[in-house]
Amino acid sequence: MNALHFWLGHAVVILGVAALGYALWGMAGKRPYKKRMWDMASAFVIGLYLQIVTGFFVIFSTTNRSFDRSLGFHMVLSMAATALAHFTYSVSRRRPREDRTYSTHVWGVGIALALLAGGILVILVSNQRA
Fold first, then answer.
1. Helices 35-61 & 2-28, crossing angle to 10 degrees?
2. Predicted structure pTM score
3. Each residue's pLDDT tens digit, 87-127
4. CA Rg value for the chain
5. Residue 92 burial class via C-beta count within 10 angstroms: exposed 0-12, middle 13-18, buried 19 and up
6. pLDDT for residue 54
7. What is the structure's pLDDT at 108?
8. How far apart are CA 45 and CA 61, in angstroms?
9. Which end of the chain offers a freer environment for a tag, N or C, measured as fewer CB atoms within 10 Å?
């Protein structure tokens, strides 16, 4: 399960970077909002949910796992990123198609990726100290 969480994390980051890149491309070119952006944001959110579920399985399936502050901080940042990405997706979905903008995704996905990066760094720094 740990390997699944690890590799799924890579896929989620790739999905997030792709969604952010597409949003930046659309916003910079002042292009009309396309359904592809909505699909990419949806894939990113679904990936984050799967990552959260596999993370809980990793924590609760391992009996010798010590629950320290770094793991708790990793969980909080990951759940905050997931909530923000879902909020961004929902806000965009509820707007009429002609009112949807790429900038919503630039901010939402961008900050979600920053939160994910922070959560990953917490674990990496914690493992280096051990």
1. 160
2. 0.91
3. 999 998 899 988 999 999 999 999 999 999 999 999 899 88
4. 16
5. buried
6. 95
7. 97
8. 24
9. C
Strand (E) or helix (H) holding 21:
helix 2-28
Kindly tell me the burial class for residue 64, based on how many C-beta atoms sit within 10 Å of its own C-beta (0-12, 13-18, 19 or more).
exposed
Per DSSP, 1 falls in state -
Q: Report DSSP letters for 43-77, one per residue.
A: HHHHHHHHHHHHHHHHHHH-TT----HHHHHHHHH
Tokens found for residue 46: 């679904």
In this structure, are residues 44 and 17 in contact, taking their beta carbons and an 8 Å threshold? no
Which amino acid belongs to residue 101? T
Nearest Cα neighbor of 2 from 110, 127, 106 is 127
